[in-house]
């Protein structure tokens, strides 16, 4: 019942931009703020998504944003790390879970099935932020 925005771009600490693989600017926080994203559910599969970019999505009206407060990893060809958590999140959204419940369930499954030691760092730093119209 929500629009889903799934972003897999690079972020840098404190920067109001997201970058492509060659670190060309792909998206700015100002561009996001200028959009009407009322009610959207946003998943940021990239480093430092929980910062100026997440704030911009919330300012644009997103119901919630899931992003990482630190560096992360996502896997380039196969969904690993943050992308694997994101796929679980989307799976639970599609099954009818609220965004918050989908986040909680995705974290539980991700934690229970993780085999890479880097996965714990994702669980330690990923955050669900709800906007004014909490999802």
Residues in helix, % = 25-40%
Which term fits the overall shape? Answer: globular
How many angstroms does the end-to-end distance come to?
Answer: 10 Å
Q: Which radius of gyration do the C-alpha atoms yield? A: 14 Å
Mean pLDDT level: 90
The chain-level structural class is alpha/beta
Q: Number of DSSP strands?
A: 7
> What is the strand content?
15-25%
For the biggest sheet, the summary is: 4 strands, mixed
Topology as a string of helices (H) and strands (E): EEEEHEHEHHHE
How many helices? The count is 5
Low-confidence segments: none
Task: Provide the spatial order of strands within the biggest beta sheet.
Answer: 1-5-6-7
């Amino acid at each position: 019942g929500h629009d889903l925005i799934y972003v897999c771009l690079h972020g840098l600490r404190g920067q109001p931009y997201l970058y492509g693989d060659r670190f060309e600017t792909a998206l700015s926080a100002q561009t996001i703020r200028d959009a009407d994203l009322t009610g959207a559910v946003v998943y940021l599969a990239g480093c430092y998504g929980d910062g100026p970019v997440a704030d911009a999505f919330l300012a644009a009206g997103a119901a919630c944003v899931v992003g990482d407060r630190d560096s992360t990893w996502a896997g380039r060809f196969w969904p690993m790390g943050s992308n694997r958590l994101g796929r679980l999140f989307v799976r639970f959204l599609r099954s009818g879970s609220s965004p918050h419940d989908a986040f909680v369930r995705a974290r539980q499954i991700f934690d229970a099935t993780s085999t890479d030691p880097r996965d714990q760092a994702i669980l330690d730093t990923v955050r669900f932020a709800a906007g004014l119209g909490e999802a």
